[in-house]
Design a protein that fits this description.
The complex is a heterodimer of chains A (452) and B (260). Chain A has 452 residues and is α/β, with parallel strands linked by helices. Helix content of chain A is 24%, strand content 37%. In chain A, the strands form two sheets. A ten-stranded mixed beta sheet of chain A has the order 2-1-5-8-10-12-14-16-18-20. In chain A, strands 3, 4, 6, 7, 9, 11, 13, 15, 17 and 19 form a ten-stranded mixed beta sheet that branches. In chain A, 50% of the residues are buried. Chain B is an alpha/beta fold. Chain B has two domains: 172 residues, 3-Layer(aba) Sandwich (Rossmann fold); 63 residues, no CATH class. Chain B has eight helices and ten strands. In chain B, a hairpin with a 2-residue loop joins strand 4 and strand 5. The chains are: A alpha/beta (452), B alpha/beta (260). The interface between A and B is medium-sized, with 23 and 32 residues. Bound molecules: adenosine-5'-diphosphate and magnesium ion. Magnesium ion binds next to helix 1 of chain B.
Chain lengths: 452, 260
């Protein structure tokens, strides 16, 4: 079996069976990737808070991970292969479609009769490239996460070497296309797994909800083995068409040996609604860019973030709420709990362009520190160039309150129980805005596991 | 057998400042005591120190209950032993519902054996709900209380009633009520007073801390103590409250040579 690496030759091999435009796209990304220097934590502003990159050393390891990308594994649909039910647990009646991917290969898809009847397209991205080339050509890394993202979004995302890497070597992920006016009542579920050591997961999420459609996607990213080292360089692109209603939940539970890089970007059209939940529990180092662009008037985006990091996990999140059109609304609430020696850096920006009068934009980041050695930096920001704009932003970081602990303990609960109550209470404002009880349940379980 | 909370020569300091300086006091189950003292005399310091607040440092002295050295115990273990403190200023805990919390607390205090066969060691949900509803009705507390976040955005009267509700659910042997009447209007004091008197019985010893005797109209103490300069300087019966009402603390201060 021929091993892969980051060379152009390898790229040409893996792209050989793909349409020419995709081949060119990959090669273009590759040129970018080659030309961009490795991010530098002291010289590059947006990487300044990404501690402990030990870049060169890390880079050598990443190259090794990519060698696991054998060419044969590159167009890898293994449809309806075996799926271990211990890792994939869902209620069939409550699920419209399922996709399971393990180590970059799609192992299982099932879309219900309902999806077929409604004309919803849901498949792994390699299959989609064969079956829905026009959709991919229009949307894939063209309008949301692009190599030029930086030019559109103020100063948050400079050209990102990892986005370029993703563009060149992407493997796995899925396309969901919901046609005009179609409502999918129950959620679709996606399980993305890393199992073997030294794996690189470069999955790409592409959700296109056409005008007036409605859909809920629950995506779960998980390492099935606790000690397998790995690397994720992902992208999420969401298009909520006019008047569409999209709920997207991503739960990330990579193990503590996974280096995690991702760019997420959602485009919200006229009068569309997006409810976007990001829950982060895993990863050794996480560097995430998450942006919502309110392109059409009347668009509405809720961004809910919940993160719990411990041990030596590092979490670095940059968010952007970009208001391009008037009468748009965005509300971001990100809450992080940090334990042990975990560190987090959150930088959020609201951009209100001159074309976006009558905008409401809210942004709040709160951090709860459970130990002396945990550390949180938080940097909210506003850039307003329009009129009649209502914006608020705020950030807090504080240790667990000794008065609260004493109050609870004085009624008989142990320190551990008091801590859990306070943590659950801290996350509650995020939880109560999540519209699905099953998701709230899953998140509560993950939070509880972190406290054990 | 009625147990006694015995406090002997207790010294408590806060951030290095001695506040309680040699206090002696005993409260038995079934007895009602009032501890009166002006603002700043150390009443809350005593209460929090007895419950084990980490900021209130016990420098010396003894606190014994049920033959156990209370000062060795964590606050939750003191609660399990049967002590309860109704806070003067209850702490708000956003996001934590009163019912959820109270189910944990009641289960912890009653112990696993009492809670039956539930795997999580908690009192069964239905049983708990029934009991909570009963107690809420008994105390005239609105049903919505259970779902609300603990002390979060509560009015003064609601805060104190929530404390009394927890007292009723936890069924302690000794309850310390720290100014449960302060900051309330006359009606609220009456409601709180009547609620507490419903709970009084041979198994409950009460230490009512107050600087103002309104609450005592509803709960008549058998013993009254006056706290000045970190010590109990006078103990007596009901008549002491009358003396205080008529003359204030000044004559007592003078008598014991204590500066204001
Ligand atoms: N948490 C605290 N931090 C600093 N000083 C305190 C604290 N608690 C009490 N004290 C001090 O202890 C003294 C007694 O206060 P306190 O016990 O609250 O009195 P009381 O309850 O009788 O009004 C006061 O001088 C007060 O300033
Ligand atoms: Mg006080």
């Amino acid at each position: 079996m021929q091993k892969g690496d980051f060379s152009k030759e390898f790229l040409q091999k893996i792209a050989a069976a793909e349409p020419q435009w995709m081949r060119e796209k990959r090669l273009e990304a590759y040129e970018f990737y080659e030309s961009l220097p490795m991010p530098h934590t002291t010289q590059d502003d947006v990487w300044r808070r990404t501690v402990d990159m030990r870049t060169q050393d890390y880079w050598r390891r990443t190259r090794r991970y990519l060698r696991s990308f054998a060419v044969e594994k590159y167009h890898p649909s293994v449809p309806n292969g075996a799926v271990s039910s211990k890792d994939v647990d869902y209620d069939e009646a409550e699920t419209a479609g399922v996709l399971v991917q393990v180590d970059g290969q799609c192992h299982h898809t099932s879309d219900s009769e309902i999806l077929k009847e409604k004309g919803v397209y849901f498949a792994d991205l390699h299959t989609a490239l064969q079956e829905q080339p026009e959709l991919l050509r229009t949307y894939f890394m063209n309008r949301a996460v692009t190599l030029e993202t930086a030019l559109k979004s103020g100063n948050i995302a400079q050209h990102n070497k990892f986005d370029a890497l993703h563009g060149a070597f992407w493997r796995g992920g899925y396309l969901l296309h919901v046609p005009k006016g179609v409502t999918v009542e129950v959620p679709l579920r996606v399980y993305i797994r890393m199992s073997e050591a030294e794996q690189a997961d470069l999955s790409h999420t592409l959700i296109i909800a056409e005008e007036g459609s409605q859909v809920v996607v629950l995506e779960d990213n998980l390492s099935t083995t606790p000690d397998a080292s790995g690397f994720h360089s992902g992208a999420v692109e969401i298009f909520a068409g006019q008047n569409a209603n999209v709920t997207y939940v991503q739960v990330q539970r990579w193990n503590r040996h996974v280096w995690n890089f991702a760019s997420h970007r959602a485009m919200v059209d006229r009068d569309a609604q997006l409810c976007w939940v990001t829950a982060t529990f895993g990863g050794r180092l996480n560097k995430i860019n998450q942006a919502v662009v309110l392109e059409g008037a009347g668009g509405n985006a809720k961004m809910l973030g919940l993160a719990f990091t411990d041990a030596r996990q590092h979490l670095d999140i940059s968010t952007a709420q970009e208001h391009v059109s008037p009468h748009t609304f965005s509300d971001l609430l990100y809450r992080t709990v940090l334990k042990d020696r975990a560190q987090s850096a959150w930088g959020g920006n609201i951009y209100v362009y001159p074309s976006a009068n009558h905008t409401d934009a809210y942004q709040k980041n709160d951090n709860l520190l459970l130990s002396e050695r945990a550390h949180a930096d938080t940097l909210p920001g506003l850039e307003i160039q329009a009129h009649e704009v209502r914006c608020t932003h705020g950030a807090t970081a504080g240790k667990i309150d000794a008065e609260q602990v004493f109050y609870l303990m004085s009624r008989g609960v142990s320190y551990a129980q008091a801590e859990k109550l306070i943590v659950d209470g801290f996350f509650e404002p995020v939880m109560e805005r999540i519209p699905l009880e099953s998701v709230r349940e899953e998140l509560r379980t993950s939070v509880t596991r972190k406290l054990e | 057998m009625a147990n006694e909370l015995t406090i002997k020569d207790l010294h408590i300091s806060v951030q290095g400042n001695p506040i309680i300086k040699g206090l002696n006091l005993s409260v038995q189950q079934g007895e009602i005591h009032a501890l009166m003292g002006p603002n700043g005399s150390g009443k809350s310091t005593l209460a929090k120190g007895l419950m084990g607040h980490p900021l209130y440092e016990v420098d010396s002295g003894e606190v014994i209950f049920d033959g156990v050295d209370v000062l060795e115990l964590e606050p939750n273990e003191r609660a399990k032993l049967g002590l309860f403190l109704a806070f003067q200023y209850p702490t708000a805990i956003p996001g934590v519902s009163l019912a959820n919390f109270l189910r944990l607390a009641v289960s912890a205090v009653r112990g696993k054996e009492a809670n039956g066969s539930e795997k999580d060691g908690l009192i069964p949900m239905r049983e708990f709900r029934r009991e909570l509803r009963e107690k809420m009705q008994q105390l005239g507390v609105d049903d919505s209380f259970a779902r609300r976040y603990l002390n979060d955005g509560f009015s003064g009267g609601e805060l104190k009633r929530a404390e009394i509700l927890q007292l009723a659910m936890l069924e302690p042997k000794i309850a310390i009520l720290d100014e449960t009447d302060s900051g309330l209007d006359i009606d609220a004091v009456r409601i709180v007073g009547e609620s507490v008197s419903q709970l009084i019985g041979p198994d409950l010893g009460v230490l009512i801390i107050t600087h103002y005797p309104r609450l005592l109209d509803y709960i008549r103490p058998q013993f009254v103590h006056i706290l000045l300069d970190g010590r109990v300087v006078e103990s007596g019966g009901w008549e002491l409250t009358q003396v205080l009402e008529a003359e204030g603390y000044d004559p007592i201060r003078e008598k014991h040579g204590i500066d204001e």
